[in-house]
Amino acid sequence: MADWESLLRERLGASRFAHSVRASRLAAEIARAHGLPEDRAALAGLLHDFAREMPEAAMAQIAHELGCDPKVPAVWHGPVAAHILRRDYGLDAADVLSAIARHTVGDPAMTALDAVVFVADLDAHGVVPGLHELALRDLRSASLAAVAASLAHLLQRQRRIDLLAVRTWNALLERDML
Length: 178
Ligand SMILES: [Fe+2]
Ligand SMILES: [Fe+2]
Fold this sequence. Notes:
By secondary structure, the chain is mainly α. The protein has a single domain, classed as Hypothetical protein af1432 (Orthogonal Bundle), CATH 1.10.3210. The protein has helices spanning 2-11, 14-33, 38-47, 56-66, 77-89, 94-101, 112-125, 131-137, 139-156, 163-174. The radius of gyration is 15 Å and the shape is globular.
């Protein structure tokens, strides 16, 4: 993972790099609590914001090709990161790429590993009280709490909501577990 860290350090500012390392550690811890592969969670956690500081025009071009909602640019960096990591850096672990692609708003069909990284990202920001303990105990409830916090944030600021976030919310309500 040392190579990925150096590569990431070149692409991100210091605070976002630190956030990524923190998300990586938390993702590994949450994965361990659920018997999921720690190394995959750690790698996806580390690389989830790989495209976050890309020039917007370059990101918009790829986001367009990938069919992302053109009106919600904040969501693009997940799918774009997964795309670039596969195309330009040879990362071919489908589960890791999926967790990276889905980290911003989740996905109605998210896997347990996707949920680990999704929750670890918010956990690393430390903005949702009790999220870490909940994530260690119950991934589905933690994912619901994470989506709820994201939606509340957007509603309070009168910002556009990607329909994928709403579909994720509805799908999580109907699932028994992750
Ligand atoms: Fe992100
Ligand atoms: Fe992040």
